[in-house]
Amino acid sequence: MKAIIVGAGIGGLTAAISLRRAGVEAVVFEKAPELREIGAGISVWTNAMKALEKIGVADAVREAGRQEIGGTIRSWNGERISEIPADVLEKRFGLNVVLTRPELQEVLLAALPHDTVRLDAECVGFRQAGSSVTVLFAGGREERGELLVGADGLRSVVRERLFGGARPRYAGFTAWRGLVDLGDEREGEGFEAWGRGNIFGLVSLGRGRFYWYATKNAPEGQRDAPEGRKAELTRLFGGWHEPIPTVIEATEEADILRNDVYDREPLKRWGMGRVTLLGDAAHPMTPNLGQGACQAIEDAVMLAACVRGEANVEKALRGYEERRAGRVAGVVRRSRLLGKAAQLENPLLCALRNAAAGAMPLRLQLRQLDPILDYEE
Ligand SMILES: Cc1cc2nc3c(=O)[nH]c(=O)nc-3n(C[C@H](O)[C@H](O)[C@H](O)COP(=O)(O)OP(=O)(O)OC[C@H]3O[C@@H](n4cnc5c(N)ncnc54)[C@H](O)[C@@H]3O)c2cc1C
Questions:
Q1: Residues with CB under 6 A from ligand 1
Q2: H/E element holding 236?
Q3: What residue's CA is closest to ligand 1, atom 31?
Q4: pLDDT at res. 41
Q5: Ligand 1 centre from 11 Cα, in Å?
Q6: Which is the closest atom of ligand 1 to the Cα of 281?
Q7: Which of 280, 298, 332 to mutate to test the pocket of ligand 1 (most atoms within 8 A of CB)?
Q8: What are the Cα distances from residue 222, in Å, to 167, 219, 260, 301?
Q9: Rounded CA gap, 335 and 358, in Å?
Q10: H-helix or E-strand containing 299?
Q11: What percent of the chain has pLDDT over 90?
Q12: What is the DSSP string of 18-63?
């Protein structure tokens, strides 16, 4: 059986590995002319690590990244709001790993035969007939297979052809990301600092390297300030606690990424016939739980399990969608809710939010994470 996967992001590559392990000939078509995963760091939480374990790549991810990740929330001025120590988190849920996106991409690519990914192949549509699906690419190329997986991200063409072109929902804030080398002195430091309508997070990647992210409430599509990204970030966060101003200062202007943040209302159906969706194409979410790619990984492993266990492709795909839809809808909603709380602007509401988060006992904080991290199918 041949599966055509559109999109070589984390979701598409993981799907290729999982399907190949299930005995399916999986080929990935990517519109970009080269494979260059952009974005700074990525947290691969326990739930995704358990899924990666099943397809034999968890050890390589662990080796490439850094473990012992805790969760510390501070106020913009450095006051501690709440903390989940790394050892407590690990004892309860298992290991989380953080690494850069290119590192994760490299691990996934290393688990695939070198000709699995075909570049410069932009999917523009598909047609289904009988027991096959033909995928159409820009320039007139066609490729035929027994199933099609749309892993083509937030503005998925496969999704659009299945369900129409509804726009994603703008979450009301924009996000910057970057990588920085701070040396060994701050090794292991990590936190998320909450302000009013903006947050700043720092995650240690080991060997003195750090991944940082920042957000602010903004109208959709707002352009960069004329003085540039770094100067804008310094204006917004220069008065926040150390090492935030130092982190911004130490990052190269050209290395600062910026994206507006979107999600979508969870779909009830993800596919039709021999076509299905996976990852952001099916369920983009705000980054507040760090679960977008983790859910794409869970999807990929479940998709392969369903295909392996069912000779009827359409039944296998509907089974996969059914088993994933409820789980993913819950994560999308929680992430959205957390995003709303993190981006609050009203001073009174911010004070209440911080007080409520600070008063929450550790065991309750952990219980809130149970449905996300303590998951394995
Ligand atoms: C600020 C921020 C921080 C985040 N942090 C985390 C985190 O810590 N942990 C986490 O799990 N998630 C995180 N996420 C979410 C995560 O980045 C995404 O959910 C994840 O990358 C989605 O992977 P994907 O493979 O589904 O889609 P994508 O990564 O978007 O990949 C889609 C691929 O399809 C290709 N493509 C698109 N259209 C076509 C076409 N027509 N034909 C062929 N190819 C096509 C694209 O070029 C791309 O390579 C974060 C997101 C943001 C914005």
A1: 6-12, 29-32, 42-43, 122-123, 151-154, 157, 175, 177, 213, 259, 261, 279-281, 287, 290-294, 296
A2: helix 229-237
A3: 9
A4: 93
A5: 8
A6: 26
A7: 280
A8: 17, 6, 9, 37
A9: 19
A10: helix 292-308
A11: 91
A12: HHHHTT-EEEEE-SSSS----SSEEEE-HHHHHHHHHTT-HHHHHH
Query: How many CB atoms lie under 10 A from the CB of residue 91?
Result: 10
- As a whole number of Å, the CA-based R_g of the chain is 21
pLDDT above 70 coverage of the chain, percent: 100
Residue nearest to atom 38 of ligand 1 (CA): 152
| Tens digit of each residue's pLDDT (9 = 90 or more) over 248-267 | 999 999 999 999 999 999 99
And the tokens for 121? 């192949």
State how far the Cα of 35 lies from the Cα of 85, in Å rounded to an integer.
36
The mean pLDDT of the chain is: 95
Question: Any idea which residue has 């150390």 for tokens?
Answer: 242
Q: Which of 152, 156, 158, 298 to mutate to test the pocket of ligand 1 (most atoms within 8 A of CB)?
A: 152
For the chain, list the domains and their CATH numbers.
2-168+263-373 (3.50.50.60)
Which tens digits make up the pLDDT trace of 31-68? 999 988 777 899 999 999 999 999 999 999 999 998 87
- CA dihedral for 194, 195, 198, 203, sign (positive or negative): negative
Dist. CA 187–CA 338, nearest whole Å: 28
